[in-house]
Each structure stands twice: as structure tokens, then as C-alpha cells.
Amino acid sequence: MRRSAGQQSPNAAERNLNQITITGTLTAKEEVRYTPAGLIVFEGTFHHRAELVEAGRPRTLEYDFPTVSFGPVAEMLHKVPLGTHLTLKGFLAPRSQRSQRLIVHITEYI
Fold first, then answer.
1. CATH no. for residue 73?
2. Cα pseudo-dihedral 68, 19, 99, 24, rounded to 10
3. Which domain holds residue 47?
């Protein structure tokens, strides 16, 4: 994104911003597992569908995206039935240190 003349540079907090809020329907989830430190892990797939306007034109988006969560949120997500539509909040991160594929880390949901 380009800034117009006279616009200030973002501060450090804005430069490091990584937040996502997205809706989706739970379509798949892995079996319960735990980290070596004993934290419960949720891994699942959500389906997102939205109609929006981009550059003045309508656009329909429809795709699946991978998610992961840890601790109490993961424990609650394991109890959510497939087909449930949720609003997810969290951040994006690579799947692993050796991967460039992004995954949504869920920190809360509604």
C-alpha cells in the first residue's frame, strides 16, 4: 500500500500488526493431540464464503483454510460439531519454521 505525500510512517505497533478476524464453517478436524509440553492442540479446516466489493466490482470468495489452536481454546474447539459456523480471531503464521504456507492460529472464537 502506498502512502500519499505528507502521510506519516506507521509506528512500531502498526508495523508489527498481525491480526485476523474471519468467519468460517468447520469442515474437518484432526484427532486430539498434545504438544511435548502437554498443551492440547486443535487442528482443523474451515470453509469461508463471502461476497464483497473490490475496485468497485462485486467479487465472491470461497475457499478452505487451515487452522491451529492451543490450550483452553483448542479444548473448546474440539467440542464444536462439524458444520458449525464461527467467527474466528487470531493471527497468521507459517505452518512451521521451514514452511512458507500460512495457517490461521485461533486465539478466540464466537
1. 2.40.50.140
2. 50
3. 19-109
